[in-house]
Design a protein that fits this description.
The protein has 636 residues and is mainly beta. The chain has 2 domains: 336 residues, Immunoglobulin-like, CATH 2.60.40; 185 residues, Cupredoxins -  blue copper proteins (Immunoglobulin-like), CATH 2.60.40. It is 10% helix and 33% strand. The protein is built from 9 helices and 36 strands. The chain has a 7-stranded mixed sheet with strand order 1-19-18-21-16-13-14, covered by helices on one side. The longest helix has 10 residues. The radius of gyration is 24 Å and the shape is globular.
Length: 636
């Protein structure tokens, strides 16, 4: 087993509560039996591990949440409960209603856009080979679309959900059905709105794909499985930030988050709110609580669903082991903290091998180095959740059990014992992919094509400060580029011939004269090396739709062309999202027909133009089985 020792927050420490067993037994056995609102308090005395004594008293209070916008993630994000991967492929149907609500995930009330009235969204779970059907009704005030991040969608590019590329947006009041098969992959993924920065308002949730192949690799190494979603959080609707971000004449920078969340819950200090027009309820300022059964092994699926910054995950005083990254099982790597970039996913193994009950903190530290170390007036970058180790089995929990915790005195006491240190990823490069070795080796084919993308920011003729890839700043195509490609290919003209024969960048304006579409055309099977460069020290998490890629190299300095072709290609890491700073060289197999975007996942950069597209094997597009409601979206 590899052991990567990163900078530790402090000495391994667990606070042990002699009377916590009584607390757990009482709260679990009696208080949780009532579905109605309840409150239970118990004063406890704490001591540190032997050799360091300290006494204090506080009330451990559990109270059910009177607000119904919160998804009970303790139940909803428990993965694989009574699951069988040997089931024959089946159809799994979900009904999504997108709507606008008022919510206060960290105590501060704001406008949100959510799925089925809850935040975060429900878990989509299936076996490899299953068909997923999602009936979506958009009752929100804005258009929407849902991208299934990490899913290959082979043969169903039109279900990828990237608005302006793979589909036209679902208008307010409209409906659409996503229908696709989970093929050729497994692991931890997620879904989110692909309209503007709407996913930062709440249209987001996890995806887990099971398979016999993955079970054979790691299933015997854990007892329980759950999703943990990490995010930064804002106190205004994303549309307000976008209006400010796009003001003419302003050299815009990403907005500073106001707080952070773990599984949709966070603690914000309401005393920082001075405007009487703003609503902040301390009773809703809560911590996510994780009750882990003693002497059990947990698979924790970490997903960064944030809009702006990476998160550094840690569990106070504990090591854990990385075993998966974005659907790729890797040889075990043990760390004590893990930088999770925007849109990235990891599975870690965590063991609760304690002889006594204990309480400690889980951290998701927002890495402000990702935004040039800018700090807002209200942001506390250290986001916490509470971990309780007990004898209680996850099978014992139901809807009457609370999954939130609002005892700030206890958390403050736990924090006072921690030797807090900021994330040591000062360049915001994310976890070093070279430490990750795929457990199933894949032969890397030789490249047939080489392309380069240069990131820049410039004022356009209207004095808007936009993001550019090479010389193009993207805006959503109308109609979507895939729809335009289909229409062109159904006729016989110069543009249809370009799509089926031309290799490399298509002439600007190929898609309806639109000057904002940069499309690399790949008319037949190819293996592409893509170099992405960023001369400024601002990180960009790049995501490629429709496939994953091999990471050949990424460095802070300029690319040395004399070394091209000499990079190690023996079982490099495979994933679909990578942090670009300096340069990053990736290789991917272009064999999935359709039009696929590659873009920065920092929401504000994407919405100001940081997106390119790959049109792959366009001659297959007319053979797609486009559903009628997909066609009709572009008529709305």
């Amino acid at each position: 087993m590899n052991k990567v020792r990163l900078k530790r927050r402090g000495q391994a420490r667990n606070i042990i509560y002699p009377s916590l067993a009584a607390l757990v037994a009482t709260v679990v056995s009696y208080s949780f039996a009532f579905v109605s609102v309840y409150e239970y308090s118990l004063t406890t005395t704490s001591t540190l591990l032997p050799g360091a004594e300290r006494s204090a008293s506080w009330a451990f209070t559990t109270k059910s949440d009177p607000f119904d916008f919160r998804l009970n993630t303790r139940l909803a994000y428990r993965v694989g409960h009574k699951w069988k991967t040997i089931f024959e492929p089946t159809v799994r149907t979900y009904n999504f209603v997108v709507s606008d609500i008022k919510g206060s995930p960290d105590g501060y009330e704001r406008s949100m856009t959510v799925i089925n009235g809850k935040y975060p969204g429900p878990l989509i779970e299936g076996n490899r080979g299953d068909r997923i059907i999602i009936h979506l009704s958009n009752q929100g005030s804005s258009p929407t679309s849902i991208h299934f991040h990490g899913l290959f969608m082979n043969g169903t590019n039109f279900m990828d959900g990237a608005g302006g590329v793979a589909q036209c947006f679902i208008p307010s009041g409209g409906q659409f059905t996503y229908n696709f098969t989970l093929e050729g992959q497994y692991g931890t993924h997620w879904y989110h709105s692909h309209y503007e920065a709407q996913y930062s308002d709440g249209v987001v949730g996890p995806i887990v794909i099971h398979s016999v192949e993955e079970d054979l690799l790691i299933r015997n190494r854990y007892d329980y499985d759950m999703v943990i979603m990490l995010s930064d959080w804002y106190h205004k609707h994303s549309s307000e930030y976008l209006r400010e971000y796009a003001r003419p004449g302003v050299r815009s920078v990403p907005p500073i988050p106001d707080s952070g969340l773990i599984n949709g819950a966070g603690h914000f200090d309401c005393s920082k709110v001075s405007d009487p027009q703003e609503v902040c309820n301390p009773d809703q300022s809560k911590y996510a609580a994780f009750w882990f059964q003693r002497n059990k092994r947990y698979r924790l699926r970490l997903i960064n669903i944030g809009s702006t910054v990476a998160s550094t995950f840690s569990i106070e005083g504990h090591d854990f082991t990385i075993v998966e990254a974005e659907g790729t099982i890797v040889d075990p790597v043990t760390v004590d903290k893990l930088s999770v970039g925007l849109a990235q996913r990891y599975s870690i193994f965590f063991e609760t091998s304690w002889d006594v009950d204990s309480v400690f903190l889980m951290h998701s530290e927002l890495n402000l180095h990702c935004i040039s170390d800018r700090r807002g007036p209200v942001l506390d970058p250290d986001v916490q959740a509470v971990v309780v180790v007990t004898d209680r089995s996850p099978d014992d929990f139901d809807d009457s059990d609370d999954w939130l915790f609002n005892n700030t005195d206890l958390v403050t006491s736990l924090l006072s014992e921690a030797n807090y240190s900021e994330p040591d990823d000062i360049y915001c490069r994310g976890f070093n992919d070279s430490y990750l070795v795929p457990s199933v080796a894949v032969q890397v084919p030789d490249a047939t094509h080489f392309y380069r993308l240069d990131i820049s920011f410039e004022f356009n003729d209207s004095q808007n400060f936009l993001a550019y890839l090479n010389s193009t700043s993207w805006t959503p195509a109308q109609p979507a580029t895939l729809r335009q490609a289909y229409d062109m290919l159904m006729t016989s003209n110069e543009n249809s011939s370009l799509l089926t024969t031309h290799e490399g960048l298509l002439p600007v304006g190929t898609f309806g004269g639109d000057q904002n579409q940069m499309v690399f055309n790949v008319p037949k099977y190819a293996v592409i090396d893509l170099l992405i460069t960023q001369p400024r020290l601002i990180p960009h998490p790049f995501h490629l739709h429709g496939t994953n890629f091999f990471i050949l190299d990424r460095q802070l300095e300029q690319f040395d062309y004399s070394k091209y072709g000499k990079h190690v290609t023996t079982n490099p890491m495979r994933r679909d999202t990578v942090q670009v700073l300096g340069y990053t060289l990736i290789r991917f197999i272009a064999d999935n027909p359709g039009v696929w975007p590659l873009h920065c996942h920092l929401a504000w950069h994407l919405e100001t133009g940081m997106l390119a597209q790959f049109s792959i094997m366009a001659d297959k597009i007319p053979k797609f089985d486009f559903p009628r409601d997909w066609m009709n979206l572009c008529k709305a």
